[in-house]
């Protein structure tokens, strides 16, 4: 009997040695295939998972290591009380400290309730981002990706989260750090994309990031060279100011358009431009309010993408009509109030609405996933560190597109309007010098130019001062001024109409007086 037991142990040892060599061979082939790209990363990773789950080995656990991959297999029973993998118990395959994982006792509860049996827990550490490339080519902390899987089942909605600790040998201040997981099938051109859903980010120290996630998959820490997370204490005031300001602007824009339609007077090109601008402002505010609501109550993916595309179109059209206002002002002053362009309003309408629509449709055609939930990090300070939470808004997901077609587009229109303002003031100053009799009208024109150009361009340039000591005042000033933009535009148009009526009445009185004297 002792001889049979010894023979059985030897056979198990030989099988374990053979399995270990096969797994190491697969892991080495994965490393060698990185340069050749013969097999897709998805198949390589999934192939490794299946081999680890089906591996035969002697003992309760098995550890395998190559240059950039480390795999661990654990045999778990239904009496599982939790497992902690510290960085000191793992092999140091990199100069940086290896991430640590802590699994709760709840991990095996659902699987054992369905059918009590021995379970397999696999943990895979990738010290390279090659197998997890997304469309944005995201930067990951230390280029570490680590994953876990329990048997062949899917584990999610854990009440006690899986805790993952990441370290860096330098301070991480100045970076936006977000715990993310690899969401399979979330991209058209790659086998997945990074998503923060189900994960909470905490930063106990400047060089440590702690992730709390309610499911098992592949995890990493996303690093972004972007502005610091929005402090939680500022979130509620900014949201309130945006809600109130945009709501007032919506009412003011609607009132302006309704009054314009009610009057039914023959309109010139300037009035048509004003109404188109007010229409774009109305669309922008409505889309923004709906997008902000979606941040509280998440909407389905296609609906969020459609809302994000609408919001982007409204912003681009608003910026375009601002530039058209500046261009029209240049024509009015440059041609000394005498300008005629065939089908002028129709051409401006095609430019103001057509160009933004073309840009948005082009983005949707090239890559529809450019629109969707945009994660905004929210920081909450505690005594022992900082917790980074997340909120989302339906907006552009691509930082490159945001820089080019939001910041760049706004920058061009703001610079154009500033140039028009400077030229207009110079032209009016020259008119004052030539004819003192027009000084009253010149002063009125100066006020008109300042009011129009400031309201239609310069306030958006505040977006370029969101750094350093300017960040806090810029947030509130930008939110207040631009959320009330539709209301300010309504006031300006109202006073312009009142001034025109007063001027017409004065001219009529002067004409009547001259007729009576004759």
TrEMBL record:
Subcellular location: Cell membrane
InterPro entries: GAIN_B, GAIN_dom_sf, GPCR_2-like_7TM, GPCR_2_secretin-like, GPR1/GPR3/GPR5, GPS
Membrane topology category: Multi-pass membrane protein
Transmembrane segments: 240-263, 275-297, 309-333, 345-366, 406-428, 449-469, 475-495
Gene Ontology terms describing biological process: adenylate cyclase-activating G protein-coupled receptor signaling pathway; cell surface receptor signaling pathway
One Gene Ontology term, aspect cellular component: plasma membrane
Assigned keywords, A-Z: Cell membrane, Disulfide bond, G-protein coupled receptor, Glycoprotein, Membrane, Receptor, Signal, Transducer, Transmembrane, Transmembrane helix
Domain G-protein coupled receptors family 2 profile positions: 238-497
Chief localization: membrane
A molecular function GO annotation: G protein-coupled receptor activity
Domain annotation GAIN-B: ranges: 70-229
Protein family membership: Belongs to the G-protein coupled receptor 2 family. Adhesion G-protein coupled receptor (ADGR) subfamily.
Purpose of the protein: Orphan adhesion G-protein coupled receptor (aGPCR). Ligand binding causes a conformation change that triggers signaling via guanine nucleotide-binding proteins (G proteins) and modulates the activity of downstream effectors, such as adenylate cyclase. ADGRG5 is specifically coupled to G(s) G proteins and mediates activation of adenylate cyclase activity.
Name this protein carries in UniProt: Adhesion G-protein coupled receptor G5
The organism of origin for this protein: Marmota marmota marmota
């Amino acid at each position: 009997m002792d001889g049979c037991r010894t023979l059985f142990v030897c056979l198990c040892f030989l099988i374990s040695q053979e399995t270990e060599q096969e797994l190491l061979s697969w892991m080495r082939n994965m490393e060698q295939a990185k340069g050749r790209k013969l097999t897709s990363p998805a198949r390589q990773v999934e192939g490794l998972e299946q081999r680890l789950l089906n591996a035969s080995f002697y003992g309760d656990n098995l550890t395998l290591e190559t240059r950039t991959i480390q795999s661990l297999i654990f045999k778990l029973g239904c009496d599982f009380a939790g497992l902690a993998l510290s960085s000191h118990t793992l092999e140091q395959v990199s100069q940086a400290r290896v991430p640590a994982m802590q699994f709760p006792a709840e991990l095996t509860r659902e699987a054992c309730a369905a059918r009590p049996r021995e379970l397999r827990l696999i943990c895979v550490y990738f010290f390279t981002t090659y197998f997890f490339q997304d469309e944005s080519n995201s930067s990951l902390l230390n280029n570490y990706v680590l994953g876990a899987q329990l048997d062949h089942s899917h584990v999610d909605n854990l009440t006690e989260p899986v805790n993952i600790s990441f370290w860096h040998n330098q301070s991480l201040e100045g970076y936006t750090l977000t715990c993310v997981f690899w969401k399979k099938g979330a991209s058209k051109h790659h086998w997945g994309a990074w998503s923060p859903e189900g994960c909470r980010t905490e930063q106990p120290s400047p060089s440590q990031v702690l992730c709390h996630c309610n499911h098992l998959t592949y995890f990493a820490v996303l690093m972004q060279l972007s502005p610091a997370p929005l402090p939680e204490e500022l979130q509620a005031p900014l949201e309130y100011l945006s809600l109130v300001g945009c709501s007032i602007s919506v009412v003011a824009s609607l009132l302006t358009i309704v009054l314009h339609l009610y009057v039914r007077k023959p309109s010139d090109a300037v009035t048509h431009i004003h109404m188109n601008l007010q229409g774009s402002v109305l669309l922008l505010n409505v889309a923004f309010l709906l997008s902000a609501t979606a941040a509280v109550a998440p909407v389905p993916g296609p609906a969020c993408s459609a809302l994000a595309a609408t919001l982007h179109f409204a912003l681009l059209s608003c910026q375009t009509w601002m530039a058209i206002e500046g261009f029209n002002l240049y024509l009015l002053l440059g041609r000394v109030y005498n300008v005629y362009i065939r089908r002028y309003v129709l051409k401006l309408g095609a430019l103001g609405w057509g160009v933004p629509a073309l840009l948005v449709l082009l983005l949707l055609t090239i890559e529809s996933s450019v629109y969707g939930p945009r994660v905004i990090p929210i920081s909450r300070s505690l005594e022992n560190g900082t917790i980074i939470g997340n909120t989302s808004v339906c907006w552009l997901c691509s930082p490159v597109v945001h820089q080019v077609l939001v910041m760049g587009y706004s920058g061009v229109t703001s610079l154009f309007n500033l140039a028009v303002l400077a030229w207009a003031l110079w032209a009016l100053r020259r008119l004052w010098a030539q004819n003192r009799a027009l000084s009253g009208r010149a002063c009125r024109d100066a006020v008109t130019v300042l009011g129009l150009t400031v309201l239609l361009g310069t306030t958006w340039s505040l977006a370029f001062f969101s750094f350093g000591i300017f960040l806090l005042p810029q947030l509130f000033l930008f939110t207040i001024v631009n959320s009330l933009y539709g209301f300010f535009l309504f006031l300006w148009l109202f006073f312009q109409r009142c001034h025109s009526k007063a001027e017409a009445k004065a001219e009529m009185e002067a004409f009547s007086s001259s007729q009576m004297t004759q």
